[in-house]
């Protein structure tokens, strides 16, 4: 097993580490770590246990986080043991202090066996808690996703390498059901993962239950009065280059701060958590870096903002549920379409005038609220739907007697 892992590690470093594949390396290493052991557990009965995880077992984020927070009490009432995989020791200890003894590691033989004995796995990504194939055999595995698929995902992603596509194809053998955030995207979800429509469940995303879950003092300190506009600027990452902030002809670092002061506006810049870069050239008293070290998961703080700025990030689909203005900055739409692509025509799933100047930035108002598009992006949160699905599917798993 060690020799196999060493060969895989050598093979992986042959790939250039860039925006296109650097995240894939950790995925492949994790997938290899428990691959052989997983076959031993294929035919065994399961414990009444549910394991949650998020991105490569390192993050406490996305839909699995909020299903865990909002539904663990109900699951425990039914006799299920609930755990969330966090491999970072410091993070695991901090979360245990806040939420209780729910957090475990996937490292080590005993931990892997513990996870593989579980009746259910609930994931935000295609990364299972333990690597392997056919892991949905006598196990309910729910892939919740981590956002409405505005840009291409999975097998439809034009920037995905052959290795990443192969990884996705293998991982689809592990999943029982995939969540689609609305009927509009259900067929696309099937295509993105190469699965039948029977494996796609239309349900509200668990994180939509929690957009007003927390209040950050760090964010609130910048609201000086009732007229202050707090703006979240959250562009997505590009596989071909770093994102360009404030890509406007009339933008000037020298004058932007004063313009924001006069407009009583504060902009919080949040890049993709896995592709954060140096923001120092843009920062001032009114432009604030809101990276993942300040706030790991932005979802529960969305209601603290008055306006959202983005490009192709699906964060706007969640923010739109709050009926607040969204400004779109698709400055490189043609390049992004060619490299990644969109699930549907960009115009069909967005609204309002494109923000292509600093002047327009200060004109975002109620005209930039979602219209009819809101109905296709997400269905209204309904906790009972999720509980019913979990109850129905988990009772089908063959359990041990103890």
Account of the protein in words:
With 402 residues, the protein is α/β, with parallel strands linked by helices. The chain has 15 helices and 12 strands. The chain folds into 2 domains: 2-205 and 382-394, Rossmann fold, CATH 3.40.50.11820; 217-377, CDP-glycerol glycerophosphotransferase, C-terminal domain (Rossmann fold, 3-Layer(aba) Sandwich). The model is unreliable at 1-17 (pLDDT under 50). One of its GO terms (biological process) is teichoic acid biosynthetic process. It is found in: Cell membrane. GO terms for molecular function: CDP-glycerol glycerophosphotransferase activity. It is a peripheral membrane protein.
Write the layout of secondary structure elements.
Layout: H1 2-12, H2 22-33, H3 35-40, E1 47-53, H4 62-77, E2 81-85, H5 89-99, E3 103-104, H6 109-116, E4 118-123, E5 140-143, H7 162-171, E6 177-180, H8 183-193, E7 200-202, H9 217-220, E8 229-233, H10 253-262, E9 265-269, E10 287-289, E11 307-310, H11 315-319, E12 326-328, H12 333-339, H13 358-361, H14 374-377, H15 383-394
Parallel strand pairs: 1-2, 1-4, 2-3, 4-5, 5-6, 6-7, 8-9, 8-11, 9-10, 11-12
Helix pairs in contact: 1-2
Brief overview:
It contains 15 helices and 12 strands. With 402 residues, the protein is an alpha/beta fold. α1 packs antiparallel against α2.
Helix content: 25-40%
From N to C, what is the helix and strand string? HHHEHEHEHEEHEHEHEHEEEHEHHHH
Q: Termini separation (Å)?
A: 31 Å
CATH topology of the largest domain: Rossmann fold
Radius of gyration: 22 Å
Family: Belongs to the CDP-glycerol glycerophosphotransferase family.
Membrane topology: Peripheral membrane protein
GO molecular function: CDP-glycerol glycerophosphotransferase activity
Subcellular location: Cell membrane
